[in-house]
């Protein structure tokens, strides 16, 4: 559904989401995996796997830190897949009309001020410096 309006805020294109059942089942399964991984990571932190409690070998400590890092990586990768599926399948694709601005509009008030002012004008140097340093300096 597209509109013919070209004013700011008009919807230019709207495509409804697909809302497939397979994506919903996938999100549920990934959420179950996510809960399991978070539980494993929490148990590992409480049990002290990565802190070296009860271990005397540094090799075991390094392996435990790598394991905990791998679990944390899997948590974030799983979360990214959940968000990717949700965004692709359950959010509409909407394009709105935005106001196009020229490059100088955000930086300057008037178009003739695009080139700026020189600071080496002698008498006006102190005044120009004050305006550059104190933007709210009164005239």
Please give a structural write-up.
There is one protein chain. The chain is mostly helical. The protein is about 50% helix and about 5% strand. It has three helices and two strands, in the order βααβα. It has helices at about 20-45, 60-90, 125-135, and strands spanning about 10-15, 95. The protein has a two-stranded antiparallel ribbon. The longest helix is centred in the middle third of the chain and has 33 residues, at about 60-90. The radius of gyration is 29 Å and the shape is flat. The protein starts with 10 loop residues before the first strand and ends in a 6-residue tail after the last helix. The model has no long low-confidence stretch (mean pLDDT about 75).
Could you write a compact summary of the structure shown?
This protein is mainly alpha-helical and 139 residues long. The chain has helices at residues 21-47, 58-90, 125-133; strands at residues 11-15, 93-96.
Keywords:
mainly alpha, two-stranded antiparallel sheet, 2 strands
Specify the helix fraction band.
40-55%
Question: What share of the residues does DSSP label as strand, in percent?
Answer: 5-15%
Using the CA coordinates, give the radius of gyration: 29 Å
Largest sheet: 2 strands, antiparallel
Report the count of strand segments.
Answer: 2
Q: Cα distance, first to last residue? A: 53 Å
Treating each run of at least 4 consecutive H or I residues as one helix, how many helices?
A: 3
Quick check: average pLDDT?
77
Coarse structural class: mainly alpha
Shape: flat
Strand order of the largest sheet: 1-2
Order of helices and strands: EHHEH
Instruction: Extract low-pLDDT stretches.
Output: none
């Amino acid at each position: 559904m597209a509109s013919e309006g070209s004013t700011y805020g008009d919807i230019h294109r709207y495509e409804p989401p697909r809302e497939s059942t397979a994506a919903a089942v996938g999100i549920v399964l990934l959420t179950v995996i996510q809960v399991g991984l978070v539980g494993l990571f929490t148990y590992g932190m409480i049990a002290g796997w990565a802190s070296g409690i009860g271990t005397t070998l540094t090799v075991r400590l390094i392996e435990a830190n790598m394991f905990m890092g791998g679990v944390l990586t899997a948590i974030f990768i799983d979360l990214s897949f959940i968000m990717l599926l949700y965004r692709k399948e359950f959010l509409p694709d909407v394009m709105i009309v935005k106001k196009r601005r020229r490059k100088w509009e955000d930086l300057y008030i008037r178009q003739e001020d695009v080139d700026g002012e020189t600071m080496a004008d002698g008498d006006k140097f102190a005044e120009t410096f004050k305006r550059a340093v104190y933007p709210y300096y009164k005239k």
